[in-house]
Amino acid sequence: MRAIGVIRHSPNRRVNKEEFEELLRSAGYEILAIVEQTREEHPKYNIGPGKLQEVKELIKELNPDRIIFANPLTPSQSFNITKELKIDVIDKWQLVLEIFEKRAHSKEAKLQVELANLQYELPLVKEAIRRIKLGDRAGFKGMGEYQTQQYLKHIRYRMGKIRKELEKVKADREVKRKRREEVGFILVALAGYTNAGKSTLLNALADENIEAKTQMFTTLDTTTRRFTINGKRALITDTVGFIDDLPPFIVEAFHSTLEEIVRADIVLLVLDSSEPWREIKRKFLASIEVLKELKALDKPILVVLNKKDLTSEEELSDKKKAIEELISRKGITVSGIASISAKERDLKELYTALEEVMFTLPKYRLFEILVKEREKVPKVIALINSIGEILDVKYGETTRISAYIQVGMIKSLTKMGVELKHPS
């Protein structure tokens, strides 16, 4: 597919042209031209009428298949522009959804993408019906009034059905999550801007080889793998990448996946440290906005500066200081900052930071474990080492073990015939 891209920069905020071009390429488009304009949003066409005429001339010259706007379009703007240009017109979010459709593999991911598409189409169909009633023969995708009305009913019915199916997936995931907590796993979620290297980090932590491409939105399917932090059992989950101004309809559609972040014990917010500071700052703040939307900012968050192998030590140090200053200025609470190279599997700083955070979690409490049967002591110590941290062991007729353990593991220990007390 051949496309002409259109970017409208606001006087006080520029659209990232490189990112828009990368989105186009990720969706499989051949970029014929990029038209740019700086002005306030035109209520009818988004861009100015003069610039619209310029696009019209380019269409005659280059014969594209589509015009793609880097800015979100209102349903009214979408119809007005299509009517003027007489060519298929989509905006940034429809472009993102096209990429999602290409990347979705699991049943859950496909349902989430379909729900997001239907939520995107809903206001367009309503606008088409409004225009038909006003005498404008602008149906939706060539449909007449009756067909458009029927399609609106179908959208609402299908959205309801998908939400019910996703609720079942959510319930199944909740059962698995509780079971994981009961057997002593720390739940860690990867979050961050698309293409920051989250999948590569999952591979490095879990010693896996899951496909990780340098493309936008490679991961749509939730992936969970085991790893250990100094012998402690943990699970790492990769989630869909963020992007600037992620709209509510995409957040809602992918809520069951993004909920892995909400339910996690620790969130790793991954940034690409090899990028210029202005990009790191932009993507960090965009990610914080999504975490805020998810109500996940109260969790322990570790900022992970990935790809340190692609930048100098001095530059990395400067960026780390800049992140610290930005965090302080914005009043954001984070539990630490770690510099790593997921590709080179250099994760020392991250392991240290994770271990420091782990025992501050509410699920860990200090207990005194009493073991009366001497032959059970080695097994009890081995179990505690896998789920907590032993502070002291006093051997005797009754062995007394002082340790931080996960509350969810109390049952497992009592089944071994030991007694647990809160130290006075």
Automatic annotation (TrEMBL):
Q: What is its main location?
A: cytoplasm
Q: Where in the cell is it found?
A: Cytoplasm
GO CC annotation: cytoplasm
Q: Which cofactor does it need?
A: Mg(2+)
Q: Please list the residues that bind Mg(2+).
A: 199, 219
Q: Does the keyword Nucleotide-binding apply?
A: yes
Question: From what superkingdom does this record's organism come?
Answer: Archaea
- Role, per record: GTPase that associates with the 50S ribosomal subunit and may have a role during protein synthesis or ribosome biogenesis.
The similarity annotation says: Belongs to the TRAFAC class OBG-HflX-like GTPase superfamily. HflX GTPase family.
| Name of the protein this chain belongs to | GTPase HflX
Q: Which organism is it from?
A: Thermococcus litoralis (strain ATCC 51850 / DSM 5473 / JCM 8560 / NS-C)
Organismal lineage: Archaea, Methanobacteriati, Methanobacteriota, Thermococci, Thermococcales
